[in-house]
Design a protein that fits this description.
Helices cover 32% and strands 24% of the residues. With 110 residues, it is an alpha+beta fold. The chain has a domain of 68 residues. The strands form 2 sheets. It has a 3-stranded antiparallel sheet with strand order 3-4-5, covered by helices on one side.
């Protein structure tokens, strides 16, 4: 973009053909393969995850527990860290059954 003076000192925005350097690059096959390998190596199912580049340039990664958005240039590194911290794993339900009921009953009798 460039700015030029128009009329009474106002600025107008003129688009130049420089947008080619800012084209949003979609997730390529190599990145998809790296993602699948990372997920398999961490014991997760790649079929339960999806990845896409959005119109705003962010990369959207969705998994069983949620969705996160990352800057295009650092999405894989940041996603890897979040995956390592189990941010995308389904929540584990609390234990149920007799032990929980017994423990709860003991607390009520005190």
């Amino acid at each position: 973009m460039s700015y030029s003076r128009v009329g009474s000192g106002a600025l107008s925005i003129r688009h130049l053909p420089c947008h080619a350097s800012h084209v949003i690059k979609d997730i390529d096959q190599n990145e998809r393969q790296l993602l699948a390998n990372l997920l398999r190596a961490s014991g997760r199912d790649p079929e339960r995850f999806s990845v896409a580049t959005q119109a705003d340039g962010l990369v959207r990664v969705s998994g069983p527990r949620g969705t996160a958005f990352y800057p295009r240039d650092a999405w894989f590194t940041r996603f890897s860290r979040h995956l390592d911290k189990s941010f995308f794993d389904p929540e584990v339900p609390p234990p149920s059954g007799p032990r929980v009921a017994r423990k709860h009953a003991e607390m009520e009798s005190d």
